[in-house]
Design goal:
Layout lengths: L5 H25 L3 H19 L7 H31 L3 H22 L9 H33 L13
Helix pairs in contact: 1-3, 1-4, 2-3, 3-4, 3-5, 4-5
């Protein structure tokens, strides 16, 4: 990590650790057996449905399906945000790095779904697409926010000796 400050090295290390923990959490959910996964899903569905749909106009089974898909999207959305922050912290070329990060995320999604076969749960291609979409959305929002912040700081705050506004620069 040539040319990186201590603060940036710490940030990169912390983000890398977050990515490892997030992937570990995602995989741990997939390694639960069908009964454990279903119970967890039903508990979460019950809590959210009481808040969002107290009259239960949406059938609980349908509501649970959407909760499960939203969980897939959200877990990988977090992974995408972390990957986007890592790209920013490393000051890498965004397009190439985003492609590599997207490949990492889709391989993680494929592995995640494949792990479910070990516990006799269904492995669904649609879940891989949902996972990947979450990761891409998280990464895109993060990189766009970083880009906008950098442009604003360059416009109003000036640049440092390296030509960057601050640590959010590419």
């Amino acid at each position: 990590m040539k040319g990186l400050t201590r603060a940036r090295i710490f940030a990169v290390s912390a983000l890398f650790a977050c990515i490892v923990f997030t992937v570990g959490y995602i995989f741990s959910n997939s390694l639960e057996n069908a009964a454990q996964s279903s119970e967890k899903s039903q508990n979460v569905t019950q809590v959210i449905q009481e808040i969002v749909d107290p009259e239960q106009k949406i059938p609980t089974q349908t509501f649970e399906k959407y909760i499960r898909k939203t969980a897939h999207f959200s877990e990988f959305g977090l992974l995408g945000v972390e990957c986007g922050l890592l790209i920013i912290a490393l000051r890498k070329k965004h397009l190439v790095s985003a492609g590599i990060a997207a490949l990492f995320c889709v391989l993680t999604a494929m592995t995640d779904e494949s792990l479910q076969m070990i516990t006799d749960r269904s492995c669904e291609v649609t879940d891989v697409w949902i996972d990947f979409s979450g990761a891409v959305c998280g990464m895109t929002i993060t990189l766009l926010a970083g880009f906008i912040i950098t442009k604003l700081k360059n416009k109003f705050g000036g640049k440092n000796k390296n030509g960057y506004a601050d640590d959010l620069s590419p």
